[in-house]
Amino acid sequence: VRNSILGGHTIYGVRSGFDGFISDDIFDVQWGDVTGWVGSGGAMLGITGTLPKTDYQAIANNIRKHNIHAILMIGGSTAFESLLGLYEQRENFTEFCIPILVLPAAICNNVPGTDFSIGTDTALNRITMMCDRFKQSAQGARRRVFILEVKSNSNSF
After folding, report:
1. pTM higher than the cut 0.70
2. Best label site of 73, 96, 106, 143, fewest CB within 10 Å?
3. Got the DSSP string for 8-38?
4. Dihedrals φ, ψ of 115, to 5°?
5. How many angstroms separate the CA atoms of 8 and 121, rounded?
6. 45-103 residue pLDDT tens
């Protein structure tokens, strides 16, 4: 196993969310492997939003197989709900008795227990900038109607 730069710890990525955790689509991540991921976010891993309820045993087996000592999930309310599911299963699976953490990163800012998510400020600033551009264009137009709609997939936005 190749060691990452982070103090000899091995960093793993999981493709397709918990579906990948269940099917053992887990791979060693190196510094150069994430080049160009900034603008794509979780899309490079194929995030699915699937909750882990389907097969806790397979997840536990893969945690043991890969000698995983902590889980950091970056995401929104589904990430929170997924790790909460693992936490609630600690009584049944000792493999889940490891540090688990959600780093809130959702444009809709919908992670329970947090006031702010990575991505929210950027999204709101972009929306404000676009509104200003529409307003500027509308001021120079006569007898025209401008309609601007901002949508979110979250009910909490």
Report:
1. no
2. 143
3. TPPPEEETTHHHHHHTT-EEE--GGGGTT-T
4. -100, -20
5. 34
6. 766 666 777 789 999 999 999 999 999 888 788 888 889 999 999 999 999 999 999 88
